[in-house]
């Protein structure tokens, strides 16, 4: 969708975001309330980089299919017979029917429900029943070749299916390298690959009435801890947190006093190579545009923000435990406790996100201010967004 960005946000407003934090303003209210801007962001912001679409665990078996919505675009995630994951536009080459509208854990192929054209898991069109008349499955001048599904560039990392809609972002490895290197201080790559998802204590979902950007900026700062998360702040006080701003596509906060989960004397398995002098360190990083990550010695999590409209965001969270043994029954109470504590924390943020969203409609709001000390990561994200808006106007 093309829009005249400057009718919604002026270059002066974008310039104000880019100023040093002591003088900067945040993105104006229209960046959170304009429906036209929502589609602009899909194509020019989220679509041009690597955005989280779904979790690998949604495709349990080889031969599973799951539809996914990317800001109004119907996509299809597929795990082929060999276990590799593919993402396609969820649209039939014939008359443009939506191919898959609900998850299918054990599909034989990708068969269109309208006239039954059939695609394999690579998206290749295999059969076109009756295309040449009743009982005639071929027709002169038509070849299945070149009429397969349109694929979307994808990459799996930390069990997250990332997509690059525009197809021309730098390689995923390049995109993730700063974070991968940073977190090697805590856990080696082979250990990091030992993260496991449990069938019943790994997922939660939340729908919030707020723009996706508010969820990102709230997540990357710890400033609100004492007032929004009073119980978390008791064992992990704000004074023990630090800002994380070190590269382009992410920011966040860390703590030195993460309290390991423990239920009735049982603790979750931990990363074995995590340095002994950093046992209570944990980091929470907003990986722009829409993936929020947390890493602790005994578990990790990822939240994918799925913007549904400019004022509604679906949050999909997945928790990961360390090693296969962490999925044993004996750790079940620990896993539940971790899941419930995050459910509480994420739930506590909702009123703040929704309150900010409401106030973004106010003529009394013109971007707001930043604490030059506490809001450094949020300002970093605002600048990232403003740069992408500006780039699309030149
Ligand atoms: S629209 Fe899919 S087979 Fe006709
Ligand atoms: Fe919070």
Structure notes:
The protein has helices spanning 5-8, 11-18, 30-33, 35-44, 172-183, 189-192, 212-219, 225-228, 230-235, 332-359, 376-393; strands spanning 51-55, 65-70, 73-79, 85-89, 110-111, 118-119, 125-127, 151-157, 160-164, 195-196, 203-208, 241-247, 250-255, 262-263, 266-267, 282-287, 291-295, 299-309, 312-322. It is of the alpha+beta class and 394 residues long. It has two domains: 5-50 and 177-393, Naphthalene 1,2-dioxygenase Alpha Subunit, Chain A, domain 1; 57-156, Rieske Iron-sulfur Protein (3-layer Sandwich). The strands form four sheets. Strands 10, 11, 12, 13, 16, 17, 18 and 19 form an eight-stranded antiparallel β-sheet that branches. Strand 3 (73-79) and strand 4 form a beta hairpin. Helix 2 (11-18) packs antiparallel against helix 11. It is globular and about 75 Å long. The protein starts with a helix and ends with a helix. Fe (ii) ion is lined by residues 218, 224, 228-229, 349.
Give a concise summary.
With about 400 residues, the protein is an alpha+beta fold. Helices cover about 25% and strands about 25% of the residues. The protein has eleven helices and 19 strands.
């Amino acid at each position: 969708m093309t829009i005249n960005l400057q009718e919604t946000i002026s270059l002066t407003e974008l310039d104000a975001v880019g100023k040093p934090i002591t003088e900067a303003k945040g993105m104006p209210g229209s960046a959170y309330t304009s429906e036209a801007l929502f589609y602009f962001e899909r194509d020019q912001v989220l679509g041009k980089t690597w955005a989280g679409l779904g979790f690998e665990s949604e495709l349990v078996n080889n031969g599973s299919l799951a539809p996914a919505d990317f800001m109004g675009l119907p996509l299809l995630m597929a795990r082929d017979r060999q276990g590799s994951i593919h993402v396609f536009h969820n649209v039939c080459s014939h008359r443009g029917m939506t191919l898959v509208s609900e998850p299918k854990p054990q599909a034989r192929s990708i068969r269109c429900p309208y006239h039954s054209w059939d695609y394999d898991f690579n998206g290749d069109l295999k059969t076109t029943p009756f295309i040449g008349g009743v009982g005639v499955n071929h027709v002169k001048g038509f070849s299945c070749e070149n009429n397969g599904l349109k694929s979307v560039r994808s990459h799996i990392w930390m069990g997250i299916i990332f997509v690059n809609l525009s197809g021309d972002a730098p390689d995923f490895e390049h995109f993730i390298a700063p974070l991968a290197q940073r977190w090697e201080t805590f856990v080696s790559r082979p250990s990091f690959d030992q993260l496991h998802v449990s069938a019943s204590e790994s997922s939660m979902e939340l729908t919030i009435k707020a723009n996706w950007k508010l969820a990102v900026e709230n997540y990357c700062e710890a400033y609100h801890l004492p007032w929004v998360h009073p119980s978390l702040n008791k064992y992990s006080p704000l004074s023990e947190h630090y800002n994380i701003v070190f590269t382009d596509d992410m920011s966040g906060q860390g703590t030195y006093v993460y309290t390991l989960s423990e239920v009735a004397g049982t603790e979750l398995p931990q990363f074995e190579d995590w340095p002994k002098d950093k046992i209570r360190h944990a980091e929470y990083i907003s990986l722009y545009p829409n993936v929020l990550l947390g890493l602790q010695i005994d578990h990790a999590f990822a939240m994918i923000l799925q913007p549904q409209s400019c004022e509604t965001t679906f949050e999909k969270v997945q928790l990961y435990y360390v090693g296969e043994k962490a999925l044993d029954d004996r750790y079940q109470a620990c896993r539940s406790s971790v899941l419930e504590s995050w459910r509480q924390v994420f739930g506590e943020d909702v009123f703040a996100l929704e309150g900010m969203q409401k106030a973004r409609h106010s003529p009394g709001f013109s971007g707001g201010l930043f604490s030059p000390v506490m809001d450094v990561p949020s300002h970093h994200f605002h600048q990232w967004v403003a740069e992408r808006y500006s780039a699309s106007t030149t």
